[in-house]
What we know:
With about 240 residues, the chain is of the alpha+beta class. It has helices at about 5-10, 20-25, 40-45, 140-145, 170-175, 185-215; strands at about 30-35, 50-55, 60-70, 75-85, 90-100, 110, 120, 120-125, 130-135, 150-155, 160-165, 180. Strands 1, 2, 3, 4, 5, 8, 9 and 12 form an eight-stranded mixed beta sheet that branches.
Amino acid sequence: xxxxxxxxxxxxxxxxxxxxxxxxxxxxxxxxxxxxxxxxxxxxxxxxxxxxxxxxxxxxxxxxxxxxxxxxxxxxxxxxxxxxxxxxxxxxxxxxxxxxxxxxxxxxxxxxxxxxxxxxxxxxxxxxxxxxxxxxxxxxxxxxxxxxxxxxxxxxxxxxxxxxxxxxxxxxxxxxxxxxxxxxxxxxxxxxxxxxxxxxxxxxxxxxxxxxxxxxxxxxxxxxxxxxxxxxxxxx
Length: 236
């Protein structure tokens, strides 16, 4: 299995967005909470702004991704991901994502500090976000290393600018550091959340069985309660 396929199978939401459960599970690393206090932000290691995952290719080289997810109150605001895969013709690929509800024709503008803004067209949308991707070079990587902030600017339905600030603090040290999680380690780190979900489901099944054995069949003419339906999401 190639690195891209393995990574996609393990963390399909890493590069674009994150599901609510995965977002909670990964809050400690690679996620920036915009409402965090100044004290918390200053005490937090800059490297924790980024999650780095690498896997060894068949030829012994490493392919890696780095990503940062920005949230407000646990709600997804945007994300930025950098893929460095020497097996690909375009080794360096950057992907930025914003929530749904943005005007697609305007694209997504990327700007490092006060540098020249670059408008990047959207490439794909999923049920959570829309993403724009850009093939970059070593010069762009150096700009990210020297920079303090990458600003993503989109247009909402009211034609208003929506900005997402991606902090570049810790980018250089994480990018240059050979230490990184593997895909297998990332799967293992996310496993506890799945185990908790399974335990909750088992407990709920046990309660239902007990209630059924104690209360017997539903009274004639009284239908059992229907399970609650998930709140429908508006189509975008």
